[in-house]
From TrEMBL:
It is an enzyme of class 3 (hydrolase). This is Beta-galactosidase. Belongs to the glycosyl hydrolase 35 family. It comes from Cinnamomum micranthum f. kanehirae. One of its GO terms (molecular function) is beta-galactosidase activity. Keywords: Apoplast, Glycoprotein, Glycosidase, Hydrolase, Secreted, Signal. One of its GO terms (biological process) is carbohydrate metabolic process. It holds the Pfam family SUEL_Lectin. It catalyses: Hydrolysis of terminal non-reducing beta-D-galactose residues in beta-D-galactosides. PROSITE patterns: GLYCOSYL_HYDROL_F35, SUEL_LECTIN. Its EC number is 3.2.1.23.
Length: 826
């Protein structure tokens, strides 16, 4: 292999940073007591965020991790995804975005700790929960229970991962970043149906983990019966009421859901910053010492990695870093302030004596005291009303569903419901690349299905069977697509014969297209019993059924056994007087995948088979191809696939994942209006939006997929769509807003090195409304706008102390609590 100059510089840089690391890293001892993790004997507060390495690119990792660190994290957590690393038994892949070791080293280089959830069952809305398909096909295997075949494979892979990180000195006692390791995952939630075998399995997991001698504690999340020394931990939207199963285990929260994932056909979930902050502050108020945000960066399900069925390609999760790696504001900033405060209270939170006082009406005061100094939390669990309380002789009002933090037990320096961090409204800006035409030029190619529709397929990936088979078992899950084709001779004397009959197909899903004598006669999604009228000929009739999966299930007891495809059927023709002809035991011709998949059309540079004339739109089973210039700049790139139906997309041969802009959520925007109330227990169906647009219209194109000159986009459109509206955009901050109380500091920043160009609104007094609808109130200072313009316009970021001395006299009465509200344009 030849090293280019660039490679050489990179390699040289790596050597340098490795040298640097060796000199900086020293063995770290990790243990725990009932209060906290002990790192080199010191109790620590750990604030961690989940970033799943295959859901971004290796080029994005340093920036994501840096933004996590800047947001106040001291640890990054990830699952390990078995099915991408061992796609075929004992054949491994740790390349590119699957380079776990490089990811862990990037965390280490940033000076953060790592939490490694080996599992190797991951759940994670990941295809098949992370299990490789070959595992389920081993004779005699039963997953996640006391089964020797399974345990042998689990042990083999877990050992491989542990050996790999040991070899690279990545465990804390070796000077590496890994302070915790996890075995299994949320098994306690679903172990009931496994009975005694499940209990034995939990013991076995613990023993196996112990035998691997990682030198750091093991955790088992959602596992009340986790045997010592496993530490059982909590996952959920709130974990304040969680208590570990052993007095020697610290209270740790391995999944605090910062938002929620999205499914095709559903609206977009949101979880307000105020409620995430409330849940974290409550957790620390009640003795928690380790929190992990699930997700801190959700990212993208590239390729066919999304679980489900029906999990979208975007795994944005409403996380503090958005799908593309931008700061999601105010969530990121509001939590950053909380983290700084909690870390500053580390000593007292991990050592203090705790006194709790019920102040009535849902309000609780918690005081941590050590050596005569105290820190306090005042919480109000009431979802409807503010609490006015007197605590240690001082009066406080605590907004509904919030926690105030008083590091000196006197002054409130943070309240979870009062957000002073800026709000950033993101915009997708048009591609400004030079000489890029308004509309892209497309060529197309039909997926050749004629043989199949005639019932005559032959060749590679084709075989016959006299029954209806389970789909993923047949395909090995290397493709979404499986054709089931049969033909039936019918003559007019057949008792069930009538000219018009019903074709009835019972499928477990996920998507079905039914063709009869070459014509598409029906389609449907989910598991369904499709019944469509067909015109039967008194001769040979061909039935071709295309079944497509949309991500395999990832959660639940025995989820791996959930069938896919037209397994067992029945497939029938129903005719005269409801007499039926059952075709389930016919000779079925199976065709695994598409011709285009066999050819890897998306990676091919052979243009000869593409047609550039008479572009066909609204045509199912069609490949499209275009070239485009990369948008200028560094900002994240997305492609707008509005107009298309359903399929998969590739840029320069790399998969962007499945697309499905034709799928809209149920149109019930009405009622309740916009806005979202953070108060009251969050559930994944609260605060939904996006009811009037495709579940997912925009698809992330990582910068590292792009070349400076010409780029290629290939689409496979399965149901019919129009690519003429497709265009590329960059995602960037459009509008900034902030609303900050007197005595605090307002901070504003655009993105990267883009300056603030204009202040559209600034009022210091009692301004009303919210971002994009601010109005001045009853009183304001005369010169606030000028002061903000002077401090911010032309700068990439600015900071203003909200006080009369910086903004001028407000002319508000004494009873008015003053604020500065600003709306700015980047
Ligand atoms: C995993 O299995 C392979 C054989 O399939 C064996 O060679 C290897 O030693 C096993 N690894 C461990 C850690 O057991
Ligand atoms: C409390 O004071 C004692 C005695 O001065 C000291 O040893 C200890 O480290 C202090 N503890 C904390 C948490 O500050
Ligand atoms: C902190 O609290 C004390 C007592 O309530 C008060 O006198 C003092 O002004 C407060 N300090 C600040 C900076 O708000
Ligand atoms: C999967 O296919 C194999 C043959 O390839 C068969 O022996 C096995 O029974 C199938 N399993 C299921 C669940 O259909
Ligand atoms: C029609 O089908 C029946 C039963 O398969 C067969 O016995 C008969 O010979 C067929 N008639 C014609 C005209 O093909
Ligand atoms: C359709 O298939 C499902 C799952 O395989 C089965 O439970 C159901 O009984 C079938 N329905 C009919 C009408 O056969
Ligand atoms: C055929 O089945 C349908 C649906 O089950 C029923 O409504 C109809 O009455 C039946 N027709 C005859 C002739 O039995
Ligand atoms: C804001 O006030 C703090 C102290 O209260 C001071 O250290 C800081 O310099 C001030 N910042 C600006 C931009 O005036
Ligand atoms: C019990 C439960 O719902 N667990 C889910 C928690 O959230 C994670 C992340 O979304 C999922 O992977 C689990 O299935």
């Amino acid at each position: 292999m030849k090293l280019s100059n660039m490679d050489f510089q990179r390699a040289f840089g790596l050597v340098l940073s490795l040298l640097l690391l060796c000199s900086l890293t020293s063995p770290t001892e990790v243990s725990h007591d009932g209060r906290a993790l002990l790192i080199n004997g010191m109790r620590r507060v750990i604030i961690s965020g989940s970033i799943h390495y295959p859901r971004s690119t290796a080029e994005m990792w340093p920036d994501l991790i840096r933004k996590g660190k800047e947001g106040g994290l001291n640890a990054i957590e990830t699952y390990v995804f078995w099915n991408i690393h061992e796609p075929r038994r004992r054949e491994y892949n740790f390349q590119g975005n699957y380079d776990l070791i490089r990811f862990l080293k990037t965390i280490q280089q940033a000076g953060l700790y790592a939490i490694l959830r080996i599992g190797p069952y991951a759940c994670a809305e990941w295809n098949y929960g992370g299990f490789p398909m070959w595992l389920q096909q081993l004779p005699g295997v039963q997953l996640r229970t006391d089964n020797d075949v399974y345990k042998n494979e689990m042990q083999n892979f877990t050992t491989l991962i542990v050996d790999k990180v040991k070899k690279e000195n990545l465990l804390a006692p070796q000077g590496g970043p890994i302070i915790l390791t996890q075995i299994e995952n949320e098994y306690g939630n679903i172990m009931g149906p496994y009975g005694e075998a499940g209990k034995k399995y939990v013991q076995w997991c613990a023993n196996t983990a112990e035998s691997l001698k990682v030198g750091v504690p093991w955790i088992m999340c959602q596992q009340n019966d986790a045997p010592q020394p496993m530490i059982n931990t909590c996952n959920g939207f709130y974990c304040d009421e969680f208590t570990p199963n052993n007095p020697n285990s610290p209270k740790m929260w391995t999944e605090n859901w910062t938002g929620w994932f999205k499914k095709w056909g559903q609206k977009t979930p949101h979880r307000m910053a105020e409620d995430v902050a409330f849940s974290v502050a409550r957790f620390f108020q009640t003795g928690g010492t380790l929190v992990n945000y699930y997700m801190y960066h959700g990212g993208t399900n590239y390729g066919r990695t999304s679980g489900g069925p029906f999990i979208t390609t975007s795994y944005d999760y409403d996380a503090p870093l958005d799908e593309y790696g931008n700061l999601r504001q105010p969530k990121w900033g509001h939590l950053k302030q909380l983290h700084a405060l909690l870390i500053s209270m580390e000593e007292i939170l991990t050592h203090g004596d705790v006194t709790t006082t019920d102040l009535g009406g849902g309000a609780v005061a918690t005081m941590y005291t050590v050596n005569g100094t105290s820190a306090c939390f005042l919480s109000n669990n009431n979802a409807n009303s503010e609490a006015s309380v007197t605590f240690q002789g001082n009066k406080y009002s605590i907004p509904a569903w919030s926690v105030s933090i008083l590091p000196d037990c006197k002054n409130v320096t943070y309240n979870t419901a009062i957000v002073s961090a800026q709000t950033s409204i993101m915009e997708n800006k048009p591609n400004k690349a030079e000489s890029e035409p308004e509309q892209l030029e497309w060529s197309w190619r039909p997926e050749n299905v004629e043989d199949i529709l005639r019932g005559e397929s032959t060749g590679k990936n084709v075989f016959t069977a006299t029954k209806l088979l389970e789909q993923k078992n047949v395909t090995g899950d290397v493709t979404d697509y499986l054709w089931y084709t049969t033909s039936v001779e019918i003559n007019e004397t057949d008792p069930f014969y009538s000219k018009e009959m019903i074709l009835s197909v019972n499928t477990t899903g996920h998507i079905l297209y039914a063709f009869f004598n070459g014509m598409l006669v029906g389609s449907g999604r989910y598991g369904l019993n499709l019944e469509v009228p067909v015109n039967v000929r008194p001769e040979r009739n061909v039935i071709a059924l295309l079944s497509a999966t949309v991500g395999l299930p990832n959660y639940g007891a025995y989820f791996e056994l959930a069938p896919t495809g037209i397994v067992g059927g029945p497939v029938k023709l129903i005719g005269n007087g409801n007499q039926t002809k059952d075709l389930s035991a016919n000779t079925w011709i199976y065709r695994i995948g598409l011709n285009g998949e066999d050819e890897q059309i998306w990676a091919s540079i052979d243009d000869s088979k593409w047609l550039s004339d008479s572009l066909q739109v609204k045509r199912g089973m069609t490949w499209y191809k275009t070239t485009f210039k990369a948008p200028l700049g560094e900002e994240p790139v997305v492609v707008d696939l509005q107009g298309l139906g359903k399929g998969q997309a590739w840029v320069n041969g790399q998969s962007l994942g499945r697309y499905w802009p034709a799928f809209m959520p149920p149109n019930d925007c009405g009622g309740g209006g916009g806005g979202c109330d953070y108060r009251g227990a969050y559930k994944s169906d609260r605060c939904l939006d996006g009811c009037d647009q495709p579940t997912q219209r925009w698809y992330h194109v990582p910068r590292s997929f792009l070349k400076d000159d010409q780029n290629t986009l290939v689409l496979f459109e399965e149901m019919g769509g129009n690519p003429l509206q497709v265009n590329f955009r960059t995602v960037t901050v459009g509008t900034l807003c902030a609303n900050v109380n007197e005595g605090s500091t307002m901070e504003l920043a655009c993105q990267g090195d883009r300056p603030i160009s204009q202040i559209q609104f600034a009022s210091y007094g009692d301004p009303q409304g919210s971002c994009k609808s601010f109005k001045k109130g009853t009183c304001e200072a005369d010169n606030a706008l000028a002061a903000v313009q002077k401090a911010c316009v032309g700068k990439t970021s600015c900071s203003i102390n909200v006080s009369e001395s910086t903004l001028g006299a407000s002319k508000c009465g004494d009873g008015v609590s003053k604020r500065l509200a600003v709306e700015a344009v980047c």
